[in-house]
Design a protein that fits this description.
The chain is α/β, with parallel strands linked by helices. 41% of the residues lie in helices and 13% in strands. It folds into two domains: 21-50 and 313-455, Aspartate Aminotransferase, domain 1 (Alpha-Beta Complex), CATH 3.90.1150; 58-310, 3-Layer(aba) Sandwich (Aspartate Aminotransferase, domain 2). It has helices spanning 21-30, 58-64, 75-88, 99-110, 124-132, 161-171, 195-207, 219-229, 238-246, 273-286, 297-310, 313-332, 350-353, 363-375, 384-387, 414-429, 447-450, and strands at 45-46, 92-96, 116-119, 136-139, 178-182, 211-215, 251-255, 266-270, 345-349, 377-378, 380-382, 402-406, 437-441, 452-455. The longest helix has 20 residues, at 313-332. Bound molecules: ligand PLI. The site of ligand PLI has 15 residues, from helix 4 and helix 5.
Length: 456
Protein backbone atom coordinates (compact mmCIF):
# COMPACT_ATOMS: atom_id res chain seq x y z
CA UNK A 1 0.00 0.00 0.00
CA UNK A 2 1.15 3.55 -0.68
CA UNK A 3 1.87 5.73 2.34
CA UNK A 4 -1.11 7.58 3.71
CA UNK A 5 -0.17 11.23 3.20
CA UNK A 6 -1.85 14.00 5.17
CA UNK A 7 -5.28 14.81 3.65
CA UNK A 8 -4.53 18.56 3.96
CA UNK A 9 -1.85 21.02 3.03
CA UNK A 10 -0.31 23.64 5.29
CA UNK A 11 -1.38 27.26 4.83
CA UNK A 12 -0.01 28.84 7.99
CA UNK A 13 2.87 27.77 10.20
CA UNK A 14 3.77 28.22 13.86
CA UNK A 15 7.54 28.01 14.45
CA UNK A 16 8.82 25.58 17.07
CA UNK A 17 12.31 25.33 18.53
CA UNK A 18 14.34 22.77 20.43
CA UNK A 19 16.07 23.99 23.59
CA UNK A 20 19.56 22.72 24.43
CA UNK A 21 19.89 19.63 26.68
CA UNK A 22 21.04 21.84 29.60
CA UNK A 23 18.05 24.14 29.20
CA UNK A 24 15.66 21.20 29.04
CA UNK A 25 17.15 19.69 32.21
CA UNK A 26 16.62 22.99 34.01
CA UNK A 27 13.09 23.54 32.70
CA UNK A 28 11.78 20.14 33.75
CA UNK A 29 13.34 20.55 37.20
CA UNK A 30 11.69 24.00 37.52
CA UNK A 31 8.40 22.36 36.47
CA UNK A 32 8.66 19.93 39.39
CA UNK A 33 9.05 17.02 36.92
CA UNK A 34 5.45 17.59 35.86
CA UNK A 35 5.04 18.08 32.10
CA UNK A 36 1.77 19.99 32.73
CA UNK A 37 3.86 22.71 34.39
CA UNK A 38 6.23 23.26 31.44
CA UNK A 39 5.82 26.41 29.40
CA UNK A 40 4.60 25.70 25.89
CA UNK A 41 7.43 27.75 24.42
CA UNK A 42 9.95 25.37 26.00
CA UNK A 43 8.41 22.36 24.23
CA UNK A 44 9.56 21.14 20.80
CA UNK A 45 6.84 18.64 19.89
CA UNK A 46 3.77 18.83 22.10
CA UNK A 47 1.93 15.53 22.43
CA UNK A 48 0.69 16.18 25.94
CA UNK A 49 -2.90 15.99 24.76
CA UNK A 50 -5.23 16.03 21.79
CA UNK A 51 -7.60 18.24 23.78
CA UNK A 52 -8.11 21.69 22.30
CA UNK A 53 -4.83 21.39 20.42
CA UNK A 54 -6.45 20.76 17.03
CA UNK A 55 -5.69 22.71 13.85
CA UNK A 56 -8.85 24.17 12.33
CA UNK A 57 -9.58 24.10 8.61
CA UNK A 58 -9.91 27.11 6.30
CA UNK A 59 -13.66 26.50 6.41
CA UNK A 60 -13.68 26.71 10.22
CA UNK A 61 -11.54 29.87 10.23
CA UNK A 62 -13.93 31.39 7.68
CA UNK A 63 -16.77 30.53 10.06
CA UNK A 64 -15.14 32.59 12.82
CA UNK A 65 -15.87 35.70 10.77
CA UNK A 66 -19.57 34.89 10.98
CA UNK A 67 -19.56 34.96 14.78
CA UNK A 68 -22.86 36.30 16.09
CA UNK A 69 -21.86 37.48 19.55
CA UNK A 70 -25.40 38.20 20.74
CA UNK A 71 -25.96 37.50 24.43
CA UNK A 72 -29.05 35.47 23.57
CA UNK A 73 -30.23 33.47 20.58
CA UNK A 74 -26.96 33.54 18.61
CA UNK A 75 -27.21 32.31 15.07
CA UNK A 76 -24.12 30.16 15.63
CA UNK A 77 -25.80 28.45 18.56
CA UNK A 78 -28.77 27.58 16.35
CA UNK A 79 -26.31 26.13 13.83
CA UNK A 80 -24.47 24.10 16.48
CA UNK A 81 -27.71 22.86 18.05
CA UNK A 82 -29.10 21.77 14.67
CA UNK A 83 -25.80 20.06 13.77
CA UNK A 84 -25.73 18.05 17.02
CA UNK A 85 -29.39 17.12 16.61
CA UNK A 86 -28.79 15.97 13.05
CA UNK A 87 -25.50 14.07 13.57
CA UNK A 88 -26.25 12.51 16.96
CA UNK A 89 -30.02 12.30 16.85
CA UNK A 90 -30.72 13.82 20.28
CA UNK A 91 -33.72 16.07 20.88
CA UNK A 92 -32.18 18.58 23.31
CA UNK A 93 -28.73 20.19 23.44
CA UNK A 94 -27.19 22.35 26.17
CA UNK A 95 -23.90 24.13 25.41
CA UNK A 96 -21.02 24.14 27.90
CA UNK A 97 -17.57 25.70 27.86
CA UNK A 98 -15.94 22.25 27.61
CA UNK A 99 -16.62 18.60 28.42
CA UNK A 100 -16.31 18.86 32.19
CA UNK A 101 -18.96 21.59 32.21
CA UNK A 102 -21.39 19.04 30.78
CA UNK A 103 -20.15 16.42 33.27
CA UNK A 104 -20.87 18.83 36.10
CA UNK A 105 -24.45 19.36 34.90
CA UNK A 106 -25.33 15.70 34.32
CA UNK A 107 -23.72 14.62 37.61
CA UNK A 108 -25.51 17.28 39.67
CA UNK A 109 -28.86 16.56 38.00
CA UNK A 110 -28.90 12.76 38.07
CA UNK A 111 -26.58 11.54 40.86
CA UNK A 112 -27.79 11.54 44.47
CA UNK A 113 -25.52 10.73 47.43
CA UNK A 114 -25.07 6.96 47.82
CA UNK A 115 -25.65 6.17 44.15
CA UNK A 116 -23.34 4.15 41.88
CA UNK A 117 -22.24 5.11 38.38
CA UNK A 118 -20.89 2.23 36.32
CA UNK A 119 -18.53 3.08 33.48
CA UNK A 120 -16.08 1.48 31.06
CA UNK A 121 -13.00 2.61 32.98
CA UNK A 122 -12.78 5.91 34.79
CA UNK A 123 -11.81 9.23 33.31
CA UNK A 124 -10.28 11.82 35.65
CA UNK A 125 -12.75 14.73 35.37
CA UNK A 126 -15.78 12.47 34.80
CA UNK A 127 -15.17 10.52 38.01
CA UNK A 128 -14.32 13.68 39.95
CA UNK A 129 -17.76 15.13 39.11
CA UNK A 130 -19.51 11.85 39.92
CA UNK A 131 -17.79 11.72 43.31
CA UNK A 132 -18.42 15.40 44.07
CA UNK A 133 -22.14 14.73 43.49
CA UNK A 134 -21.97 11.94 46.11
CA UNK A 135 -21.78 8.99 43.73
CA UNK A 136 -19.31 6.12 43.50
CA UNK A 137 -17.78 5.12 40.18
CA UNK A 138 -17.75 1.37 39.45
CA UNK A 139 -15.53 0.02 36.68
CA UNK A 140 -17.41 -2.41 34.41
CA UNK A 141 -15.01 -2.56 31.48
CA UNK A 142 -13.85 -6.02 30.30
CA UNK A 143 -10.84 -7.31 32.28
CA UNK A 144 -8.61 -7.40 29.21
CA UNK A 145 -8.72 -3.60 29.00
CA UNK A 146 -6.44 -3.51 32.04
CA UNK A 147 -3.83 -5.69 30.31
CA UNK A 148 -1.57 -3.67 28.02
CA UNK A 149 -0.33 -6.78 26.20
CA UNK A 150 -3.66 -8.25 25.03
CA UNK A 151 -3.58 -7.20 21.37
CA UNK A 152 -6.04 -9.83 20.11
CA UNK A 153 -9.13 -7.90 21.21
CA UNK A 154 -10.44 -5.43 18.63
CA UNK A 155 -12.88 -3.73 21.01
CA UNK A 156 -11.01 -3.48 24.28
CA UNK A 157 -13.29 -0.67 25.47
CA UNK A 158 -16.35 -2.95 25.69
CA UNK A 159 -18.52 -3.07 28.78
CA UNK A 160 -18.49 -6.44 30.56
CA UNK A 161 -22.23 -7.15 30.65
CA UNK A 162 -21.88 -9.71 33.46
CA UNK A 163 -20.02 -7.22 35.66
CA UNK A 164 -22.64 -4.58 34.89
CA UNK A 165 -25.58 -6.85 35.66
CA UNK A 166 -23.91 -8.09 38.85
CA UNK A 167 -23.67 -4.47 40.04
CA UNK A 168 -27.34 -3.86 39.19
CA UNK A 169 -28.33 -6.94 41.19
CA UNK A 170 -26.06 -6.03 44.11
CA UNK A 171 -27.15 -2.40 44.62
CA UNK A 172 -30.52 -2.31 42.83
CA UNK A 173 -31.33 -0.40 39.62
CA UNK A 174 -32.82 2.51 41.57
CA UNK A 175 -29.31 3.23 42.91
CA UNK A 176 -27.90 3.55 39.37
CA UNK A 177 -28.87 6.86 37.73
CA UNK A 178 -27.09 5.94 34.50
CA UNK A 179 -24.23 3.99 33.01
CA UNK A 180 -21.54 6.17 31.46
CA UNK A 181 -20.13 4.59 28.30
CA UNK A 182 -17.04 6.26 26.88
CA UNK A 183 -16.50 5.91 23.14
CA UNK A 184 -13.49 5.51 22.85
CA UNK A 185 -11.96 4.75 26.28
CA UNK A 186 -9.20 7.25 26.89
CA UNK A 187 -7.34 5.66 29.79
CA UNK A 188 -7.55 2.13 28.39
CA UNK A 189 -5.40 3.41 25.53
CA UNK A 190 -8.02 4.99 23.27
CA UNK A 191 -9.74 1.62 22.83
CA UNK A 192 -13.09 1.43 21.02
CA UNK A 193 -16.46 -0.08 21.93
CA UNK A 194 -18.20 -2.26 19.33
CA UNK A 195 -21.65 -1.48 17.98
CA UNK A 196 -22.77 -4.91 19.18
CA UNK A 197 -21.68 -4.06 22.72
CA UNK A 198 -23.38 -0.65 22.62
CA UNK A 199 -26.59 -2.37 21.50
CA UNK A 200 -26.34 -4.97 24.28
CA UNK A 201 -25.58 -2.40 26.98
CA UNK A 202 -28.62 -0.41 25.90
CA UNK A 203 -30.91 -3.45 25.88
CA UNK A 204 -29.71 -4.56 29.34
CA UNK A 205 -30.05 -1.05 30.73
CA UNK A 206 -33.61 -0.72 29.40
CA UNK A 207 -34.55 -4.03 31.01
CA UNK A 208 -33.71 -2.44 34.36
CA UNK A 209 -34.89 1.09 33.53
CA UNK A 210 -31.39 2.57 33.67
CA UNK A 211 -30.28 5.48 31.44
CA UNK A 212 -27.34 5.16 29.09
CA UNK A 213 -25.18 8.29 28.83
CA UNK A 214 -22.27 8.28 26.39
CA UNK A 215 -19.07 10.20 26.84
CA UNK A 216 -19.00 11.25 23.18
CA UNK A 217 -15.63 12.95 23.37
CA UNK A 218 -13.89 10.71 20.79
CA UNK A 219 -16.97 9.15 19.19
CA UNK A 220 -15.79 9.67 15.60
CA UNK A 221 -12.59 7.72 16.29
CA UNK A 222 -14.80 4.99 17.76
CA UNK A 223 -16.94 5.02 14.60
CA UNK A 224 -13.81 4.57 12.46
CA UNK A 225 -12.82 1.46 14.43
CA UNK A 226 -16.34 0.06 14.03
CA UNK A 227 -16.10 0.62 10.28
CA UNK A 228 -12.77 -1.18 9.91
CA UNK A 229 -13.17 -3.88 12.58
CA UNK A 230 -16.87 -4.81 12.72
CA UNK A 231 -17.60 -6.61 9.45
CA UNK A 232 -21.20 -5.51 8.84
CA UNK A 233 -20.17 -1.84 8.99
CA UNK A 234 -17.43 -1.97 6.33
CA UNK A 235 -19.57 -0.16 3.76
CA UNK A 236 -21.33 2.23 6.13
CA UNK A 237 -20.45 5.93 6.23
CA UNK A 238 -18.89 7.38 9.39
CA UNK A 239 -21.97 9.60 9.83
CA UNK A 240 -24.31 6.60 9.62
CA UNK A 241 -22.22 4.70 12.19
CA UNK A 242 -22.19 7.69 14.56
CA UNK A 243 -25.95 8.04 14.22
CA UNK A 244 -26.53 4.38 14.99
CA UNK A 245 -24.11 4.43 17.95
CA UNK A 246 -26.04 7.27 19.56
CA UNK A 247 -29.38 5.56 18.98
CA UNK A 248 -28.25 3.31 21.87
CA UNK A 249 -27.99 6.22 24.31
CA UNK A 250 -30.41 8.47 26.18
CA UNK A 251 -27.97 11.34 26.26
CA UNK A 252 -24.31 12.27 26.14
CA UNK A 253 -21.66 14.67 27.30
CA UNK A 254 -19.05 15.80 24.82
CA UNK A 255 -15.80 17.68 24.92
CA UNK A 256 -15.68 19.43 21.54
CA UNK A 257 -11.96 19.92 22.07
CA UNK A 258 -11.28 16.44 20.68
CA UNK A 259 -13.48 15.10 17.88
CA UNK A 260 -15.15 18.51 17.42
CA UNK A 261 -11.78 19.64 15.97
CA UNK A 262 -11.90 22.95 17.84
CA UNK A 263 -9.88 24.53 20.62
CA UNK A 264 -12.71 25.00 23.14
CA UNK A 265 -16.31 23.91 23.62
CA UNK A 266 -18.63 21.14 24.71
CA UNK A 267 -22.24 20.16 25.22
CA UNK A 268 -24.73 17.98 27.03
CA UNK A 269 -27.40 16.32 24.89
CA UNK A 270 -30.44 14.37 26.02
CA UNK A 271 -33.75 12.99 24.85
CA UNK A 272 -35.39 13.67 28.22
CA UNK A 273 -37.32 16.90 28.57
CA UNK A 274 -36.99 16.99 32.36
CA UNK A 275 -33.20 16.55 32.30
CA UNK A 276 -33.03 19.26 29.64
CA UNK A 277 -35.13 21.68 31.75
CA UNK A 278 -32.94 21.12 34.79
CA UNK A 279 -29.78 21.50 32.71
CA UNK A 280 -30.90 24.81 31.20
CA UNK A 281 -31.74 26.09 34.69
CA UNK A 282 -28.30 25.08 35.95
CA UNK A 283 -26.26 26.12 32.91
CA UNK A 284 -27.06 29.79 33.51
CA UNK A 285 -25.43 29.49 36.93
CA UNK A 286 -22.26 27.64 35.91
CA UNK A 287 -21.65 28.33 32.22
CA UNK A 288 -23.79 31.11 30.70
CA UNK A 289 -27.02 31.45 28.73
CA UNK A 290 -28.45 28.23 27.25
CA UNK A 291 -27.58 29.74 23.88
CA UNK A 292 -23.82 29.93 24.47
CA UNK A 293 -22.85 28.07 27.66
CA UNK A 294 -19.41 29.65 27.93
CA UNK A 295 -18.57 29.65 24.22
CA UNK A 296 -18.22 32.65 21.91
CA UNK A 297 -20.53 32.77 18.89
CA UNK A 298 -17.53 32.30 16.62
CA UNK A 299 -16.38 29.25 18.61
CA UNK A 300 -19.81 27.66 18.23
CA UNK A 301 -19.64 28.23 14.47
CA UNK A 302 -16.22 26.57 14.25
CA UNK A 303 -17.49 23.70 16.44
CA UNK A 304 -20.53 23.07 14.21
CA UNK A 305 -18.31 23.04 11.14
CA UNK A 306 -15.68 20.87 12.86
CA UNK A 307 -18.23 18.21 13.81
CA UNK A 308 -19.31 17.93 10.21
CA UNK A 309 -15.71 17.76 8.95
CA UNK A 310 -14.96 15.01 11.45
CA UNK A 311 -17.46 12.76 9.64
CA UNK A 312 -15.23 12.74 6.54
CA UNK A 313 -13.69 9.32 5.99
CA UNK A 314 -10.34 10.58 4.56
CA UNK A 315 -9.98 12.84 7.60
CA UNK A 316 -10.69 10.22 10.26
CA UNK A 317 -8.77 7.48 8.47
CA UNK A 318 -5.63 9.60 8.39
CA UNK A 319 -6.13 10.74 11.97
CA UNK A 320 -6.35 7.24 13.42
CA UNK A 321 -3.77 5.72 11.07
CA UNK A 322 -1.28 8.50 11.92
CA UNK A 323 -1.49 7.43 15.57
CA UNK A 324 -0.94 3.83 14.41
CA UNK A 325 2.10 4.93 12.39
CA UNK A 326 3.83 6.20 15.54
CA UNK A 327 2.75 3.16 17.52
CA UNK A 328 4.04 0.70 14.96
CA UNK A 329 7.52 2.28 14.98
CA UNK A 330 7.70 1.84 18.75
CA UNK A 331 6.40 -1.73 18.56
CA UNK A 332 8.95 -2.62 15.86
CA UNK A 333 11.76 -1.31 18.06
CA UNK A 334 10.62 -3.32 21.08
CA UNK A 335 9.30 -0.39 23.14
CA UNK A 336 6.44 -1.67 25.34
CA UNK A 337 3.15 0.03 24.39
CA UNK A 338 -0.54 -0.68 24.94
CA UNK A 339 -1.85 -2.82 22.12
CA UNK A 340 -3.75 -2.60 19.88
CA UNK A 341 -2.87 1.05 19.29
CA UNK A 342 -5.88 3.25 20.07
CA UNK A 343 -7.50 6.16 18.30
CA UNK A 344 -5.90 9.27 19.75
CA UNK A 345 -2.65 8.27 21.38
CA UNK A 346 0.13 5.77 21.80
CA UNK A 347 0.42 4.70 25.44
CA UNK A 348 3.88 3.59 26.55
CA UNK A 349 3.82 0.97 29.31
CA UNK A 350 6.01 2.57 31.97
CA UNK A 351 5.97 -0.49 34.26
CA UNK A 352 7.68 -2.48 31.54
CA UNK A 353 9.84 0.36 30.29
CA UNK A 354 11.18 0.99 33.82
CA UNK A 355 10.86 -2.35 35.64
CA UNK A 356 13.36 -1.13 38.25
CA UNK A 357 11.05 1.74 39.36
CA UNK A 358 8.19 0.57 41.65
CA UNK A 359 4.74 2.13 41.15
CA UNK A 360 5.15 4.05 44.43
CA UNK A 361 8.04 5.92 42.81
CA UNK A 362 5.87 6.98 39.87
CA UNK A 363 7.46 5.35 36.83
CA UNK A 364 5.12 7.00 34.29
CA UNK A 365 5.66 10.45 35.77
CA UNK A 366 9.43 9.86 35.77
CA UNK A 367 9.37 8.57 32.20
CA UNK A 368 7.34 11.53 30.89
CA UNK A 369 9.87 13.88 32.51
CA UNK A 370 12.78 11.89 31.05
CA UNK A 371 11.27 11.98 27.53
CA UNK A 372 11.07 15.78 27.74
CA UNK A 373 14.59 16.11 29.06
CA UNK A 374 15.91 13.77 26.37
CA UNK A 375 14.11 15.24 23.36
CA UNK A 376 11.94 18.29 24.09
CA UNK A 377 8.86 16.12 23.44
CA UNK A 378 6.07 16.69 25.96
CA UNK A 379 3.94 13.65 26.90
CA UNK A 380 1.66 12.97 29.88
CA UNK A 381 1.54 10.59 32.84
CA UNK A 382 -1.54 8.34 32.89
CA UNK A 383 -0.89 6.10 35.87
CA UNK A 384 -1.03 6.26 39.64
CA UNK A 385 -0.74 10.06 39.76
CA UNK A 386 -3.67 10.57 37.37
CA UNK A 387 -5.73 7.92 39.19
CA UNK A 388 -5.67 9.92 42.46
CA UNK A 389 -6.91 8.75 45.86
CA UNK A 390 -10.17 7.12 46.96
CA UNK A 391 -12.54 8.52 49.59
CA UNK A 392 -10.38 6.97 52.36
CA UNK A 393 -7.30 8.73 50.99
CA UNK A 394 -5.71 5.59 49.58
CA UNK A 395 -3.98 5.71 46.18
CA UNK A 396 -6.08 4.01 43.47
CA UNK A 397 -2.93 2.23 42.10
CA UNK A 398 -4.22 1.28 38.63
CA UNK A 399 -2.87 -1.74 36.78
CA UNK A 400 -2.02 0.46 33.80
CA UNK A 401 0.93 2.76 34.49
CA UNK A 402 1.29 4.63 31.22
CA UNK A 403 2.83 7.57 29.43
CA UNK A 404 0.49 8.97 26.81
CA UNK A 405 1.82 10.28 23.51
CA UNK A 406 -1.30 12.05 22.31
CA UNK A 407 -1.52 13.26 18.74
CA UNK A 408 -3.28 16.59 18.11
CA UNK A 409 -5.55 16.54 15.06
CA UNK A 410 -4.05 17.87 11.80
CA UNK A 411 -1.09 19.49 13.58
CA UNK A 412 1.99 17.30 13.08
CA UNK A 413 3.36 15.54 10.00
CA UNK A 414 4.87 12.07 9.77
CA UNK A 415 8.38 13.48 10.22
CA UNK A 416 7.43 15.00 13.58
CA UNK A 417 6.24 11.54 14.59
CA UNK A 418 9.47 9.99 13.29
CA UNK A 419 11.38 12.32 15.64
CA UNK A 420 9.16 11.28 18.56
CA UNK A 421 9.68 7.60 17.78
CA UNK A 422 13.45 7.98 17.45
CA UNK A 423 13.66 9.85 20.76
CA UNK A 424 11.65 7.28 22.72
CA UNK A 425 13.51 4.37 21.13
CA UNK A 426 16.86 5.96 22.02
CA UNK A 427 15.72 6.56 25.58
CA UNK A 428 14.54 2.95 25.83
CA UNK A 429 18.15 1.96 25.15
CA UNK A 430 19.26 4.06 28.13
CA UNK A 431 16.34 3.21 30.44
CA UNK A 432 18.49 1.93 33.30
CA UNK A 433 19.61 5.44 34.17
CA UNK A 434 16.04 6.73 34.76
CA UNK A 435 15.10 6.73 38.44
CA UNK A 436 11.88 7.39 40.39
CA UNK A 437 10.32 10.52 41.91
CA UNK A 438 8.67 11.59 45.15
CA UNK A 439 6.03 14.20 45.97
CA UNK A 440 6.97 17.75 46.85
CA UNK A 441 3.41 19.08 46.60
CA UNK A 442 0.25 17.01 46.18
CA UNK A 443 -3.00 18.89 45.37
CA UNK A 444 -6.24 17.51 46.89
CA UNK A 445 -8.11 16.81 43.58
CA UNK A 446 -6.99 16.14 40.00
CA UNK A 447 -3.49 16.12 41.43
CA UNK A 448 -1.76 15.36 38.13
CA UNK A 449 -2.41 18.84 36.76
CA UNK A 450 -0.44 20.83 39.32
CA UNK A 451 1.45 18.35 41.52
CA UNK A 452 5.22 18.81 41.97
CA UNK A 453 7.96 16.20 42.39
CA UNK A 454 11.67 15.79 42.97
CA UNK A 455 14.09 13.08 41.95
CA UNK A 456 14.82 10.38 44.47
O1 LIG B 1 -11.24 18.65 28.90
P1 LIG B 1 -12.72 18.73 28.81
O2 LIG B 1 -13.34 19.29 30.02
O3 LIG B 1 -13.21 19.40 27.57
O4 LIG B 1 -13.26 17.21 28.64
C1 LIG B 1 -13.18 16.31 29.69
C2 LIG B 1 -13.06 14.92 29.15
C3 LIG B 1 -14.11 14.06 29.23
N1 LIG B 1 -14.03 12.79 28.76
C4 LIG B 1 -12.91 12.31 28.18
C5 LIG B 1 -12.88 10.91 27.69
C6 LIG B 1 -11.80 13.12 28.06
O5 LIG B 1 -10.71 12.64 27.47
C7 LIG B 1 -11.85 14.47 28.57
C8 LIG B 1 -10.73 15.31 28.54
N2 LIG B 1 -9.55 14.84 28.21
C9 LIG B 1 -8.37 15.46 28.26
C10 LIG B 1 -8.20 16.85 28.74
C11 LIG B 1 -7.23 14.70 27.81
O6 LIG B 1 -6.10 15.23 27.79
O7 LIG B 1 -7.43 13.53 27.46
Amino acid sequence: MRSLAEPYKIKMVEPIALLSPEERRERIMEAGYNTFLLRSRDVYIDILTDSGTNAMSDNQWAGLMLGDEAYAGSNNWLHLEATVQELFGFRYVVPTHQGRGAENLISKILIKPGMYVPGNMYFTTTRAHQEMAGGSFVDVIIDEAHDSKRDDIPFKGNVDLAKYEALIKRVGPEKIPYICVAVTVNLAGGQPVSMANLRDVYALSKRYGIRVIFDATRCVENAYFIKVREPEYGDASIAAIVKEMFSYADGCTMSGKKDGIVNMGGFLATNEEDTYRQATAMVVVYEGMPSYGGMNGRDMEAFARGLREAMSFPYIRHRVEQVGYLGQQLIDAGVPVVRPIGGHAVFVDAREFLPHVPQGEFPAQALAAAIYEHSGVRTMERGIISAGRDKEGKDYAPKLELVRCTIPRRVYTSSHLDYVAEAIIELHGERDRIGGLRWVYEPPVLRFFTGRFERL
